[in-house]
Design brief:
Layout lengths: L4 E3 L4 E3 L2 E4 L4 E14 L1 E4 L2 E4 L2 E13 L3 E4 L2 E4 L4 E12 L2 E4 L2 E4 L2 E13 L1 E4 L2 E4 L9 E13 L4 E2 L2 E4 L2 E12 L5 E2 L2 E4 L4 E12 L5 E2 L2 E4 L2 E8 L4
Parallel strand pairs: 1-4, 2-5, 3-6, 4-7, 5-8, 6-9, 7-10, 8-11, 9-12, 10-13, 11-14, 12-15, 13-16, 14-17, 15-18, 16-19, 17-20, 18-21, 19-22, 20-23, 21-24, 22-25
Length: 235
Amino acid sequence: VTGLMINRPNERYVGLFGSTNSGATLRNLTLIDITVTGGRDVGGLVGNNFGNITDANVSGNVTGSGLDRVGGLVGRNSKGGRIQNATAAVSVTGDRRVGGLVGENRGTIQNATAAVSVTGDRRVGGLVGVNGGGFNEDDGKIQNVRASGNVTGSDDNVGGLVGDNNGNIQTATAFGNVTGGPERVGGLIGENNRDGTVENARAFANVTGSGDSVGGLIGSNEGTVQTVRASGSVN
């Protein structure tokens, strides 16, 4: 699909597919040079996903004019939703829970890449804005992923890969420039909460924050972190 245009700034669940159920499978889809604008739960491919997305690629611009959950591919990957072998080369703009690939992930993301420019307020990430909800170990899994580009948030919880992590992240890399607001800004993750785990991750980022809790890898950590590496400047 080339040149998709959707302009529904006051509506929820906006994308080529507004919402998918748990029995849905989307496979071998490429969206080129899209322009998608919605209210909340906005994604280039799917606004709110409960199904399986495999081998999907998106390029273009995605904008959310509401409060929450804006992603280049999917606005919200809900519990049980699965995204595999996906790429996003996008410019994403929103408010809260904004990510280059997914705004909020409560399901599983595997083998994904995002080359992005992401701009939001808080809970902003190069790949995912918010990962997991902290309710159980199956809520929010990210494996074998990479994000590159510029990530900018005007408030808290801004990361090169994930803004706010409550789930499990394994084998991840973030490259680029990360700029955040008062607190919790990191080259990889803005805030890794008590239920968040990070393993085998790297950040090669220049990080700028205007207040406390600014780190080359993680801005603020209460969870578990092992086998990690960070390089770049921190200001």
